[in-house]
Amino acid sequence: MMLDDTDLENGAMLVSPGTHTGPVCNHHGEDGRFCGVIARDTIGPEIARTVPCTGRAGSMSFHHVRALHGSAPNTSNR
Length: 78
Known about the structure:
By secondary structure, the protein is mostly loops. The protein has one helix and three strands, in the order βαββ. It is globular and about 35 Å long.
């Protein structure tokens, strides 16, 4: 659920379509501990295909839990 109006400037969620059907990506750091992040160099093509989830406050976005997703940086003053 979007708590504020969400656009590319204030860090919209980005989802890579179709990635939920692929392999499960490694979310562990070099030390073997879970860090919740995937190394960018392993998912470059998927990052290039992301779709932003934008909308007005109160809008909702649903995606498969295995779809690659992440938030863009907030470059706004909001």
